[in-house]
Specification:
Strand content: 25-35%
CATH architecture of the domain at 331-452: Orthogonal Bundle
Domain Peptidase M1 membrane alanine aminopeptidase: 312-450
GO molecular function: alanyl aminopeptidase activity; metallopeptidase activity; zinc ion binding
Keywords: Aminopeptidase, Hydrolase, Metal-binding, Metalloprotease, Protease, Signal, Zinc
Radius of gyration: 23 Å
Helix content: 25-40%
CATH topology of the domain at 331-452: Neutral Protease, domain 2
Domain Aminopeptidase N-like N-terminal: 83-218
Bound molecules: zinc ion
CATH class of the domain at 331-452: Mainly Alpha
EC number: 3.4.11.2
Shape: globular
Length: 466
């Protein structure tokens, strides 16, 4: 639709000699970022640089009242644009001036600024809202988590619109400040560094700062009664928290697990180069999520039984490089996140009992028969329903080991370091191109077999399976 408008304009310009200024006539930003799996995620026409989020949450009742102010840069002249937000909106300002707004679906807030925003310009948006995020569902998903005395925003691929006004796609990363105000006796925890705690008579405000740009789904907060400990690792502040709703023994075991984080980071740095962020930590809540998530600088873990579950820490910390530092271009690229995180989880776990990662690969390849449905998931494009299929993790990690065997450990290490150092986003095609550039090999048939086919790769040296 946008393209059609542009070509019509060109025709008009040719036919009627309209001045070029009118080619920049403001128009509406698109309601999505063009991700084939989630067309309404993110929005067109602007790029967010920074979010400032301030909330008051009622931990007991699950309510949230707040505002998001974000600084953005226009990518076209805009007379209207969308923001992703599930909560009920009470006011919107653009550059400090009240703006007209409507909801054209539960997910899309449509904003019409009083004055159009010129192309290539910085502007500020302030949105005020309130609601009970755990009651809100979109396309069958109700991702905001809550239990008695605890609430938490953590999910993938969507969670941001349940608690702040966002351009919710990994392609638009921004820094974020989060202030969570909770009743005294509760803590509000988010990503990054804790910069301030302001205690009032009834309420306490917890102020967090994430200095490095982040994909919106990786921003999180938890509010409840937590025991926490602070420290430093290589001069980077660490912050770990565990829910006081867990038993004393569970709290101790959870803390022991979180304390593994610096050791995992040091080990990963030997593979990947410096840890990419300026804060470290983790949170274990009492909410039974059944999964852990790699929130940037502060993954969340369900209670996993203690330090023996540290493969989970290896997985989530590996994601700080793969998924957080280098994010997917589109959600179909998710195997790059999960395959690499599962690969390093496997290495950290001493190849799950095998003498080498190559032995682990051979065993894994054999353990799924060629007619197993496991091989039918197309890794490079699994479809939105299969984004978190076991194959995305396992076949993903197998692909990575097969690649290491095929190009050799020296080039493999070079590849991973170049991948995480040089970029904030990447696609499967980008990864393949870099692997070919560094190894000097044509890897077309290798990647066809491993990430594009829906059959078991043949057991050949070319497929890294000898
Ligand atoms: Zn993962």
């Amino acid at each position: 639709m946008k393209r059609l408008t542009a070509s019509l304009l060109t025709l008009c310009l040719l036919g009627f000699g309209i001045t070029s200024a009118q080619a920049d006539d403001p128009s509406a930003g698109s309601s999505g970022m063009g991700d084939p799996y989630f067309p309404s995620d993110g929005n067109g026409g602007y790029d967010v640089q920074h979010y400032d989020v301030a909330h008051r949450v009622g931990v007991g009742g699950g309510s949230l009242t707040g505002r998001t102010t974000f600084q953005a840069h226009s990518l076209q002249a805009l007379n209207r644009f969308n923001v992703d937000l599930m909560l009920k909106v009470s006011s919107v300002k653009v550059n400090g001036v009240p703006a007209v707004f409507t909801k054209d679906s539960a997910h899309e807030l449509v904003i019409t600024p009083a004055t159009p925003i010129p192309d290539d310009t910085d502007f500020t948006v302030e949105v005020r809202y309130s609601g009970k995020p755990s009651t809100l569902s979109w396309k069958g998903e109700r991702p905001f988590l809550r239990t008695k005395g605890e609430m938490m925003a953590m999910n993938e691929p969507q969670i941001a619109p349940w608690w702040f006004a966002a351009n919710d796609h990994p392609r638009d990363k921004a820094t974020i400040d989060v202030r969570i105000t909770v009743g005294n006796g509760y803590e509000g925890i988010s990503n990054g560094r804790l910069t301030q705690v302001v205690k009032g008579k009834k309420w306490t405000a917890w102020q967090w700062r994430s200095a490095e740009p982040m994909a919106p789904y990786l921003a999180f907060f938890a509010a409840g009664d937590f025991a926490f400990e602070r420290g430093t690792h290589n001069k980077i502040p660490t912050f770990n928290a565990v829910s006081k709703k867990l038993s004393k023994t569970q709290q101790m075991r959870s803390l022991a697990l979180l304390r593994r984080t610096p050791r995992v980071i040091s080990w990963l740095e030997t593979w990947l180069g410096p840890y990419p962020f300026t804060a470290i930590g983790g949170v274990t809540t009492a909410i039974r999520t059944g999964f852990a998530l790699e929130n940037q600088t502060r993954p969340t873990y369900p209670y996993a039984g203690g330090a023996e579950g540290d493969w989970l820490v290896a997985h989530e910390i590996a994601h700080q490089w793969f998924g957080d530092k280098v994010s997917v271009n589109n959600w179909r690229d998710v195997w790059l996140n999960e395959g690499l995180a599962t690969y390093f989880e496997t290495l950290w776990s001493d190849n799950y009992g095998f003498t080498s990662p190559q032995q682990w690969l051979r065993f894994s390849w054999e353990s799924y028969d060629s007619d197993d449905s496991f091989w039918r998931v197309r890794l490079a494009d699994p479809g939105p329903r299969n984004m978190f299929h076991e194959a995305v993790y396992e076949r993903g990690a197998m692909t990575i080991q097969a690649l290491r065997h095929r190009i050799g450990t020296t080039d493999f290490k070079k590849l991973l370091r170049a991948w995480v150092k040089g970029r904030d986003h990447g696609s499967t095609e980008d990864f393949i191109a870099l692997a070919e550039e560094i190894s000097g090999e044509d890897l077309t048939s290798f990647f066809d077999a491993w990430v594009r086919s829906t059959t078991r790769p043949a057991r050949t040296a070319a497929n890294g399976l000898n």
